[in-house]
Structures are given as C-alpha cells and as structure tokens.
Amino acid sequence: MLDETDIGQEKQWFHKERALAVVKNLQKKHINGFYAVNRAEALPIVMDMIPSGALVVRGDSMTVEQVGIIDALIKRNKNRLIDIFHRNPDGSRLFKPEDKPRLEREAFSADVYITGSNAITLDGKIVNTDGMGNRVAPMVFGPQKVILVIGVNKIVNNEEEARQRIRDIAAPMNAIRHYMKHKAEKLANLPCVRTGRCADCSHDARICHYTVVIDGTDAVHTGRINVVLVGEELGL
Description:
Blueprint: H1 8-28, E1 32-36, H2 39-48, E2 55-58, H3 62-67, H4 69-76, E3 80-82, H5 100-105, E4 112-115, E5 119-121, E6 126-130, H6 136-140, E7 145-151, E8 155-156, H7 159-181, H8 191-195, E9 210-214, E10 225-230
Parallel strand pairs: 1-10, 2-3, 2-4, 4-7, 5-8, 7-10
Antiparallel strand pairs: 5-6, 6-9
C-alpha cells in the first residue's frame, strides 16, 4: 500500500538537489563542495581531509559535534586538537577559562580549522554572525585549510534570507543554548533569550556583532575552504 504519510524519499531528493546546486556554485568561487546523504557518510569525507600530524582547531559548532568529528579525531589520536568547547565526562571544561583567549588565537596558525555555518545560499555565499568574531575570522584568513560542515536546513535562497535565518533562528537559539546548557548567566536578560525573538538590541552581552559573507576566495587559495553539506537537519 502506498504510504502518503512517509515523505522521507521526497525530502531526500529535495535536499540533495538543492545541495548539489550549492556545491556547483561553490566550485565556481574556488571553494570545494561535497554532499553527503547523512552524517555517517559525512564523517569519512571530513576525516579524509585532515592529514595525520595536522594541528586541528575547532570553532563552536553543534553540527561538528553531531557528526562525531571530534570523537573520531580523539579516537584516531593522530592530531593535536584544540577544542575549547570540549568537556570532561562530568561536564566541566577541559581548558581553563583564562586559557580561552590564547587558544582562540591559535586558530590562525592551525593546519585545519573546522566549524559549521549559520547559513549558505543557493548561489554559494557562506553567511555567519558572531559575537566575538573568533569563529568567522579564521574562516577568512589564517588556517591553511578550513572545513565547514553544514546541514541542509541551513540552505537558503539568497543573502537576505540568510541574514533573516540568523536573526530569527540561529542567533536566538544559540543564545538560549549557551544560557540554558552552559550556564552563561550574562545572557539571561538578552531580549532573544527572554522572548525567543530578536529585538535588534544594544545589550552588552549580545552575540551578534560581526556578520561575514564569504563570496568565494582568490584563485590562489582555491580549495582552502571546503564545505561538506549533509542531507540532514543539523545544528541551529
């Protein structure tokens, strides 16, 4: 019997076609693009791009965590890994808070910088907003290789929709995540944390200071940025 309640096949086709369009347009901008049906398929694609002995620095990303990249790197034990977001089994941070600024600066000299993205457009623009700029800055300059792992839920039609997605979904959800899960009390009075909606605030603790649009790279740096699109809803 035909099951009209199951649209998994249709969604997979839809996401794949959009992702492949993005990949095609990224290539025109000297950015490598890859498509993986799911996180299990994405993991070996990412791992194959990280050579043994390379210094790997991770930027904040739920998607990187969901795909299992950090655990795979630790298990492989062939890379020096700097991950200021990694936690011990009891939930405590592996690195001391006072070490955070120094470790964040090491991203600029990393062999591989790996993180996610807030949005990516069909024509291949990568759009991100940061509070401190420590995630977007290494994407643009510094590390020899950048790997961005992005769920298909981040694909939007154009830059305007990318900014709207960040404003309406990514930024409020990320602020709430850090407040609820990481006990970031300074975020408690952010309008987006209190209401779930952006208010274009000027709060001292706002997390939306720097918005960067990557619209390709210089031909000399072809392949420095690598985007792995995953056919699942991942991250925020």
